[in-house]
């Protein structure tokens, strides 16, 4: 997807005018305009708002599979991210969960971890790894969710 902006000056929601020349590339002007609009709608500008929650039902799984099959083609490579407690032991458990579904080891260089600023949580990013189907992706997430220390996954 490519966005073209041909205007030379832009007006933010607050009424202030600014130009692409003052703020760099036209993309910067578009981002600033979107940020201003987002702020008026109660969102934090230049961020991605993620809604986490709800319950997982068979219907939700079926909907996810149908959508995934429309937008992704398999086989493909992708990453898996889990956030939880337990430090290195949690990281190891998430790697084992992915390996158990994929039936092959994840190379050490494809596992990255980051401790939260408060030190309570660890984020583990596994990938990119090759997956063969939507069902395999779902099986990886289900294997990760079996660990009670996992709080969120992406």
UniProtKB/TrEMBL annotation:
InterPro entries: UPF0250_YbeD-like, YbeD-like_sf. This is Uncharacterized protein. It comes from Genlisea aurea. Transmembrane segments: none annotated. Coiled coil: none annotated.
């Amino acid at each position: 997807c490519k966005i073209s902006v041909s205007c030379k000056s832009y007006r933010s929601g607050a009424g202030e005018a600014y130009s692409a020349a003052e703020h760099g590339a036209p993309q910067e002007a578009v981002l600033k305009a979107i940020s201003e609009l987002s702020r008026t709608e109660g969102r934090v500008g230049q961020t991605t708002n993620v809604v986490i929650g709800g319950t997982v039902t068979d219907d939700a799984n079926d909907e996810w599979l149908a959508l995934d099959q429309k937008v992704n083609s398999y086989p493909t490579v992708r990453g898996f991210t889990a956030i939880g407690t337990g430090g290195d032991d949690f990281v190891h458990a998430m790697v084992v969960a992915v390996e158990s579904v994929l039936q092959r080891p994840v190379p050490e260089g494809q596992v990255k971890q980051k401790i939260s600023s408060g030190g309570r949580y660890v984020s583990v990013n596994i990938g990119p790894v090759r997956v063969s189907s939507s069902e395999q992706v779902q099986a990886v997430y289900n294997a990760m969710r079996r660990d009670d220390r996992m709080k969120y996954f992406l």
